[in-house]
Amino acid sequence: MIRCSMGATVMSRLRCIVCVAPLLVAPVAVAETIEFGFGTDKPPYVYENEGRGLEYDIVQAAMREAGISLNVRHLPIDRLHLTLEHGELDAIASTNIQSGLSNVAYSDVVLYYQNVAIALASRGLVVECIEDLSNLSVSSFQSARRLLGGAYAKMAAANPRYREEPRQITRSRLLYSGRVDVVVADIRIHEQLSKQASAEVDVSQPITVYPIFPRTPYRIGFRDAELRDRFNRGLAAVRASGEYAAIEERYAADEPEKALSGVTHVVNGAVRSAAGSER
Fold first, then answer.
1. Ranges for the Solute-binding protein family 3/N-terminal domain (predicted)?
2. Which helix (H) or strand (E) holds 225?
3. What is the CB-side half-sphere exposure of residue 178 using CA atoms within 13 A?
């Protein structure tokens, strides 16, 4: 009887140990989730319906290193800025320090876009500087007047035929249908979206590219500086590990030098890669 009683006691203790043991295991770290906004479809940077892209992949990799998970929303650029200011999003990609946003903590530079002016070659336009756009009909992307510097903002304000499009593919339709003189776009976005517009307009028409803009640095805009700092550390880790370069390589086929082959005339210089590593 004593042995039986002692056995029961031992078994009870073992059951208690088994029950308590899981509580003693170190908890698994769970990534913090934030509300994050990307722009609408702008390949190769963001493929809205595929959850990927050069910009998208770099941001996700850096956030992963920072222990941050994203609840992603896609919005036109103006709405991205507005919802960030109103506190409906925790961070957005991509913006820069010329955006005019208040109470925003900007990250280190994530990548560069190479914006250019583009016209049908048949128009024979002479465009040597931003001011030369003043007397032309121009279609650009949303917030360009805020993101492309003072000279551009001045031109846009004074030009009654200047417009900005919430959907970037609209520019390709306008250009190849002859409804505007010039479009302003990142060269890689233009090339990719022109392919998508090929069923609607004749994109085989020769174009002239005018590289009148310097590379534009783009950053992540955060509501919280501590989140920004964590992201910056994650971005630095992604660069140091070689993952940033590997992501660039995945989208290397969309480099502007390759995109321009065949149908495009480039004047006043070459178009350079849009990605970069400066802070």
1. 33-255
2. helix 225-241
3. 6
Residue type, 10: V
Q: Give the whole-angstrom CA distance, residue 33 versus residue 87.
A: 15
Upstream peptide bond of 44 is cis (omega within 30 degrees of 0): yes
Contacts of 131 (CB under 8 A, 6+ apart): 151, 155
Mean pLDDT in consecutive groups of 10 residues from the start of the chain, 279 residues? 44 46 47 94 95 98 98 96 96 92 94 97 97 98 94 98 94 97 97 93 97 96 98 99 97 60 52 40
- Longest CA–CA span in the chain (Å) reads 107
For residue 109, give Cα distances in angstroms to 3, 72, 200: 73, 20, 36
Are residues 55 and 101 part of one domain?
yes
* Together in a domain, 104 and 222: yes
What angle, rounded to 10 degrees, do the helices at 54-65 and 225-241 form? 110
The 3-state DSSP class for residue 66 equals coil
Average pLDDT, rounded, for the chain: 86
In terms of domains, do 69 and 189 share one? no
Tens of pLDDT, residues 29-70: 567 999 999 999 999 999 999 999 999 999 999 999 999 999
Domain that holds residue 132: 114-210
pTM, two decimals, is 0.80
Residue 240 near residue 182, CB atoms below 8 Å: no
pLDDT above 70 as % of the chain: 80
Residues 162, 249, single domain; the answer is no
Cα–Cα distance between 259 and 255 in angstroms, integer? Answer: 6
pLDDT at 233: 99
